[in-house]
Amino acid sequence: MAKPTLTFVCQSCGAAFSKWSGRCDGCGEWNTIAEEKPLSEGPAKQALGGRGRAVTLTDLAANEAPPPRTAAGLDELDRVLGGGLVPASAVLVGGDPGIGKSTLLLQAAAAFARSGLKVIYVSGEEASAQVRLRAQRLGLADAPVQLAAETNLRDILTTLDNERPDLAIVDSIQTMWADNVGSAPGSVSQVRAAAHELTSFAKKRGSAVIMVGHVTKDGQIAGPRVVEHMVDTVLYFEGERGHQFRILRSVKNRFGPADEIGVFEMTGGGLAQVTNPSALFLSERGQPAPGSVVFSGIEGTRPVLVELQALVAPSPHSQPRRSVVGWDGSRLAMILAVLESRCGIPFAGLDVYLNVAGGMKISEPAADLAVAAALLSAREDSALPPETVVFGEISLSGALRPVGQAENRLKEAQKLGFSTAIMPKGGKAAKGAGMKLSQMSDLTSFVGDVFGA
Ligand code: TYD
Ligand code: MG
């Protein structure tokens, strides 16, 4: 029997199926499956592969020094890249439409050009004149960046082959169109083909390539997730529309640490670097209020203080609401369950809202104790003592587990004028750095000490 052809492709995760269905079995998203034409026939395959050459690792090490990185001189960007741009690397910058990706990359293009790289900025979304206008607005009109407005992948590759830039920026991968692929631009096959061609170009020619990818929740166009595994580095540009803060986060980096963040602020004149994010995230904090707790977190290699806000109110619904912004909802459910079963503090019949201020997203389990403190503080309507930071992981038994980099967390807190830290006992003895440490071994003693319950 002939194998069924897989022509229905999930536009979110790229899984292929032989027939249409409303929900993708691969990623669980709804209405993301669309029909796509397979790749057109290429040249007949050779029975035997072409020449391949293997070298021993030691040969490589002796003959080839690691290629030097180029720093853009924008510290927030350089740090996220792992210290600068690596030649021949492929980088994907993903983010919601309108978040500021084009602005960031135009500024990056200018910065790299001023550091001596030959940079081409290819825009598939805007005409060169529009890009130039934007550059003028950003005060970058005199930067030695070459612009091209093009969507045909073949033309782009020819241009890049002729120009041989050190860095090519392609904005965006969803507007690229490969003429040997039957489906529409933005579909999974097109996005994959474009990413593959551009990545191969980077590897073959030694140019670094930065691709922009829009993230879409409704699955209208293929998301960057389908190209994540092809590239060396994946950065996400995040932020809330209502806030001016933008966070560039590395989620994958073959040449540096993942989970590093760079913080920017969107201003009338483009993105400005934020060198002290803790001060920025805490700047909107007023007097100590019930439900508000400052968490001393670590993002990548850097300590960042953020404010957690909780609200607990009697619920009019039979199924109380649990709403989280900036943290993991299932982790919240776990903390509520531990508070209930280990400390005897019920949240049944109460709506619970938790928000990380400033549009920041936290993924560290070290925030557990700060979340529990915010929930309790809101529930008991009692503010934590002022100038207090909280951090620590909570286990299902209600024990508090020490977390990494306690010393850095304390130092950052002290720098910003905090005097007390509530944290787990044990672990590598953390020096107080002049802070008063209130160390506890389990959640019950925390509840007793802090809230007298
Ligand atoms: P843009 O970089 O076009 O977003 P993306 O490429 O991710 O779709 O940024 C769009 C938003 O940024 C737009 O709403 C206007 C705002 N913006 C500023 O606030 N200041 C500026 O200097 C620029 C260029 C844009
Ligand atoms: Mg754009």
Helix-strand blueprint:
Elements lengths: L7 E3 L5 E2 L15 E3 L21 H7 L11 H6 L9 E6 L5 H14 L4 E5 L4 H10 L7 E5 L3 H11 L3 E5 L16 H18 L2 E7 L18 E6 L6 E9 L7 E7 L2 E4 L3 H6 L9 E8 L2 E13 L7 E4 L3 H15 L6 E7 L11 H13 L7 E3 L2 E2 L5 E2 L4 H10 L4 E5 L11 E5 L2 H9 L2
Parallel strand pairs: 4-8, 4-9, 5-6, 5-7, 7-8, 13-17, 15-16, 17-20, 20-21
Antiparallel strand pairs: 1-2, 1-3, 9-10, 10-11, 11-12, 13-14, 14-16, 18-19
The protein binds thymidine-5'-diphosphate (TYD) and magnesium ion.
CATH hierarchy class name of the largest domain? Alpha Beta
User: What's the arrangement of strands in the largest beta sheet?
Assistant: 6-5-7-8-4-9-10-11-12
CATH superfamily of the largest domain: P-loop containing nucleotide triphosphate hydrolases
Profile the largest sheet.
9 strands, mixed
> How many domain regions?
3
Task: Describe the protein's architecture and organization.
The protein has about 450 residues and is an alpha/beta fold. The chain has three domains: about 1-40; about 70-275, Rossmann fold (3-Layer(aba) Sandwich); about 280-450, Ribosomal Protein S5, domain 2 (2-Layer Sandwich), CATH 3.30.230. It has helices at about 55-65, 75-80, 100-115, 130-135, 155-165, 190-205, 275-280, 330-345, 370-380, 405-415, 445-450; strands spanning about 10, 15, 35, 90-95, 120-125, 145-150, 165-170, 210-215, 235-240, 245-255, 260-265, 270-275, 290-300, 300-315, 320-325, 350-355, 390, 395, 400, 420-425, 435-440. The strands form four sheets. The protein has a nine-stranded mixed sheet. A seven-stranded mixed sheet has the order 15-16-14-13-17-20-21. Helix 8 (about 330-345) links the parallel strand 15 and strand 16. The longest helix is centred in the middle third of the chain and has 18 residues, at about 190-205. The structure holds thymidine-5'-diphosphate (TYD) and magnesium ion. Thymidine-5'-diphosphate (TYD) binds near residues 100 and 266.
